[in-house]
Write a structure and sequence with these properties.
alpha/beta, 7-stranded parallel sheet, about 25% strand, binds S-adenosylmethionine, PUA-like_sf, Ribosomal RNA small subunit methyltransferase E, EC 2.1.1.193, transferase, RsmE_PUA-like
């Protein structure tokens, strides 16, 4: 949706038809009711419903109740996997404070995945439910190699279950240990597809000094379990 104007007290804001229908038909709100709104930049505000048509609601902003948080959460770089677990990752990552989600194409990623627009909607709904003041950006799928070529983070926490597979998790470090060394750095958490990264991808990753192969314990986790547990540990160690 187009960027909303800067929020100020008294601003009159017209909602789009989906938002209007949601408020009037699903939430059963009407003229005079007060709601909480955010635009991802100006913090949390209360607003009163001034007009309430089925597909046309106008709000009058009353006051700012929450300031916009500064911290951006980590980037979650996740290979495309089947629809249900991918949608689950988007929703849970949003609740767990992810900064943005980069979808990845890898040699074993899943071509039959949820379309971007639907994932963006899931992120928006999860942000509203979890009362975040921003919606994490969902970036269209790119090849792993191009993601690595255009990095905007200092560290990649590479979920590397391979050594776990070989029963030797000494090759990787526990994620929590690595997180304690990352205080100021912008990090990406990298999670592979159902079939894992292949040997070439793994070698490419392990060869980089900005990549930290990490384990999430001695068992093989599904991609959604791995993404959620990594974000939970990140939030516990560095989150706000
Ligand atoms: N190689 C796995 C297998 O043999 O079933 C398939 C990959 S696993 C289902 C999906 C992704 O989750 C992996 O690519 C990895 O990024 C992450 N993952 C799973 N278990 C992990 C663990 N114990 N430690 C770190 N990452 C893990």
């Amino acid at each position: 949706s187009e960027p909303t104007p800067a929020f100020v007290a008294g601003l009159s804001l017209a909602l789009n038809s989906d938002q209007s229908r949601y408020l009037t038909s699903v939430m059963r709100k009407g003229v005079g009711d007060e709601i909480a709104i955010f635009n991802g930049r100006d913090g949390g505000w209360t607003a009163r419903i001034a007009e309430a048509g089925k597909r046309h609601v106008t709000l009058a902003l009353t006051e700012q109740t929450r300031t916009q948080g500064k911290a951006q959460g980590p980037v979650l770089a996740v290979a495309l996997i089947k629809r249900t677990p991918l949608e689950y990752i988007i929703e849970k990552a949003t609740e767990l404070g992810v900064g943005k989600i980069q979808l990845l194409i890898t040699r074993r990623s899943n071509a039959d995945h949820t379309k971007l627009e639907r994932l963006k909607l899931i992120a928006q709904e999860a942000a509203e439910q979890t009362e975040r003041l921003d919606v994490p950006e969902i970036l269209p799928p790119v090849k792993l190699e191009s993601f690595l070529a255009k990095l905007d983070v200092d560290a990649i926490l590479f979920g590397d279950e391979d050594s776990t597979h070989e029963g030797d998790i000494r090759v990787t470090r526990p994620l929590l240990d690595v997180l304690s060394t990352l205080t100021e750095k912008r990090a990406a958490i990298l999670i592979g597809p159902e079939g894992g990264f292949d040997d070439i991808e793994r070698q490419t990753l392990r060869a980089r000094d900005d990549v930290y192969p990490v384990n999430l314990g001695p068992r093989i986790l599904r991609a959604d379990t791995a993404a959620i547990s990594a974000l939970t540990l990140y939030q516990a160690a560095l989150g706000d």
